[in-house]
Amino acid sequence: MTKELKQEYTLKITQANKSELVVILYEMFLLYLEEAEQGHEKEDKAGFRDGIRKARGCLKELMASLHFEYEPARNLLQLYLYANRELVRAESRNSTENLLHVKSVMTKLHDAYAYVSRQDTSGPVMGNTQTVYAGLTYGKNTLTESLSDQGSSRGFRV
Hints:
This protein has helices spanning 3-14, 18-41, 45-64, 72-93, 97-117; strands at 131-135, 144-148. The chain is mostly helical. The protein is globular and about 45 Å long.
């Protein structure tokens, strides 16, 4: 993941509500899966394994965020466990064949959560974060971000 993408995801996370955080995890999972595929294409074994390891980390977070008092959680857990098994197989066989199945399942789940998150009107999970104003200001065809609330007492609250 590039430095710019890390900054973009950091900003998204600080301003996201609960359902948007799940969508962000799916996006990161799919991004790491893509990085693993690119590593395999370039015959970069370390890059391939690193992408899979990071994707499995996202899966671990998705599993930890399940609320088992709701019925869909058990079904989601089974899908996540399936995805994890396929990632382990892909890594052990050094093959991207299993990644295609996982990508298909997780893309569908991402799309479903993205649809649901648009209906969630709750506020951000994190409080006391910097306010970022972005727009085409002070530069020709460049995006300039202005940060406010840069006081010394600023800190994240969840």
